């Protein structure tokens, strides 16, 4: 999960050196493989495995730019706007039995040769089908709203429950009012409980290991083209062991 912090939004305007961009790429790879690593362990990996001399404070700063936090229970994982309503988590002990019972969403960091971008996706929990996704070079809420509207317009079915974290993008009335207008129940992860949205976490790991890390995307436009091809493969052709080796499309539209 990408914890959208006040610092990560602020640092978008800070110029990042080519060396730091390279280090951020390594941090992203380490974090994707070991999402429970904090800045101490990532510093050790950079020092000992990659022979990069870097201090813990610098690692912490780069992780804030990327919006990354270790996935273990703690307070204030992502910045919550106190003026926004927070909804209860509705998925505890809920048996997921069919497509469109639960959709969920999240944002992740994407390292590019020429900077970085942010990826959001809406996924169906039962089928793992990616209903919609959007890429942006900023954390403005507009690309999140566009992704949600596209997901709701692309299918005749709407979810019974829509789950997200408590980040300010998803608690914003601009976002929740769209769900409420479609009479969709809103569920939000407990504070510090990143694994409440585990299927999106697995999606990010898969996308990065099977596509992002294998392609040196230069910019947002090139990344969009590559991800468009990958998500078509992911939905239509990639067989999942957890789905008895069917594809997400086959399960979603069974």
Describe this structure in words.
By secondary structure, this protein is of the alpha/beta class. The protein has two domains: 6-66, no CATH class; 102-252, Nucleotidyltransferase, domain 5 (2-Layer Sandwich), CATH 3.30.420.10. The protein has ten helices and five strands; from the N terminus they run ααααβββαβααβααα. A five-stranded mixed β-sheet has the order 3-2-1-4-5, sandwiched between helices. Helix 2 packs across helix 4 (56-66). The longest helix has 17 residues, at 220-236. It starts with 5 loop residues before the first helix and ends with a helix.
> Structural class, judged by helices and strands?
alpha/beta
Counting DSSP H or I runs of 4 or more residues, the number of helices is 10
Radius of gyration: 18 Å
The separation of the N and C termini measures: 29 Å
Helix content: 40-55%
What do we call the CATH homologous superfamily of the largest domain?
Ribonuclease H-like superfamily/Ribonuclease H
Total separate domains: 2
Gross CATH architecture of the largest domain: 2-Layer Sandwich
Q: Predict the CATH topology of the largest domain.
A: Nucleotidyltransferase, domain 5
Number of strands: 5
Amount of beta strand: 5-15%
Order of adjacent strands in the largest pleated sheet: 3-2-1-4-5
User: Which term fits the overall shape?
Assistant: globular
């Amino acid at each position: 999960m990408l914890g959208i912090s006040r610092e990560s939004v602020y640092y978008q305007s800070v110029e990042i050196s080519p060396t730091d961009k390279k280090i951020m790429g390594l941090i992203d790879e380490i974090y994707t493989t070991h999402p429970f690593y904090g800045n101490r362990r990532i510093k050790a990996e950079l020092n000992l495995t990659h022979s990069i001399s870097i201090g813990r404070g610098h690692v912490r700063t780069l992780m804030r730019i990327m919006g990354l936090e270790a996935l273990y229970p703690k307070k204030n994982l992502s910045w919550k706007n106190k003026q926004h309503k927070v909804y209860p988590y509705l998925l505890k002990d809920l048996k997921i039995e069919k497509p469109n019972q639960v959709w969920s969403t999240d944002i992740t960091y994407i390292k590019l040769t020429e900077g970085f971008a942010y990826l959001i996706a809406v996924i169906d929990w039962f089928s793992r089908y990616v209903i919609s996704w959007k890429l942006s070079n900023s954390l403005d809420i507009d690309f999140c709203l566009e992704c949600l509207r596209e997901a709701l317009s692309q299918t005749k079915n709407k979810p019974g429950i829509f789950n997200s974290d408590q980040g300010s993008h998803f608690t914003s009335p601009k976002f929740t009012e769209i769900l409420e207008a479609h009479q969709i129940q809103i569920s939000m992860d407990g504070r510090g409980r990143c694994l409440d949205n585990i299927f999106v976490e697995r999606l990010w790991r898969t996308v990065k290991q099977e596509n992002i890390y294998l392609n040196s995307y230069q910019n947002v436009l090139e990344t969009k083209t590559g991800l468009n091809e990958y998500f078509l493969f992911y939905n239509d052709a990639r067989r999942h062991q957890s789905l008895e080796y069917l594809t997400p499309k086959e399960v979603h539209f069974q």
